[in-house]
Amino acid sequence: MSTTVVTGSTSGIGAATRAALREAGHAVVGVDLSGADVTADLSTAEGRQRAVDAVLDRCSGRLDGLVACAGLGPHVDDPARIVAVNYLGAVDLLDGLFPALRAGSGPAAVAVSSVAAAHLTWETNPIAAAVDSGDFSGVEKAVASAGEYRGQFAYAAAKNALTVAVRRRAVEWGAAGVRLNTVAPGAVDTPLLRAGEDDPRYGASIRGFTAPLGRHGRPDEIASLIVYLLGPHAGFVHGAQFVIDGGADAALRPHAV
Ligand code: NAI
């Protein structure tokens, strides 16, 4: 039986992924703020280290899969916390658990990014310098120009940086035999999306936009893609980003290939 770690395992896409993996016969170690196998606050360096240590302890240093899913939505009015959870909460776990994945069987990892990753480029990403220097103390200032929409700016920046981080690791991870990809969901019906719909700044635009397929995604639909990417049928899929958004990105940016 293979063992996969899922962060953000108690809600939304993470919970659906945990359920789908279990149904497929895999052991799952869930990580979340509460109610999970491993409880840890991924917004802090100590919490991220504690999560890595606890997972390594539980899996005896050998892991077959990792899904970095925990995240905060753009409605959260704390850019530093958004970047800490959505970027560092994923990348520090990827890096901290890489040695255990190398020791696994047919190992693979998936990071949950977002279609928002393509809302800016690496060249215009306000946290690119922080990512490259490792000094995240200036995040608030870096996104301040977005005013009351700084949460959205930080969210897109963190997701863009996460997708770049995965691509940057493709050579080293591929040589080690560990596949690594991102999924980039559009609007998926979860507590995170519903909080955005209830937010006075974002609610109208979220409710007013419908993907070409005419609905939001369901968490289990994203989980299906993640399970595929972790499994042997995706054996040549590496360093790639999979948009899963009901056609929204194609409708908004038809020429962006
Ligand atoms: P959700 O709110 O249902 O689940 C997020 C999970 O992350 C929760 O279980 C929460 O407790 C956990 N989490 C938050 N902060 C944490 C922290 N500091 N430490 C540990 N765990 C923490 O949200 P959803 O929608 O399932 O989001 C999952 C991922 O999918 C996120 O990374 C999100 O950015 C991404 N995503 C979601 C979209 C959507 O429309 N729902 C669209 C695109 C991406």
From TrEMBL:
Q: Which SUPFAM superfamilies match?
A: NAD(P)-binding Rossmann-fold domains (SSF51735)
Tell me the InterPro entries matching this sequence: NAD(P)-bd_dom_sf, SDR_fam
Source species, domain of life:
Bacteria
Gene3D superfamilies in UniProt: NAD(P)-binding Rossmann-like Domain
Q: What name appears for this protein in its UniProt entry?
A: 3-alpha-hydroxysteroid dehydrogenase
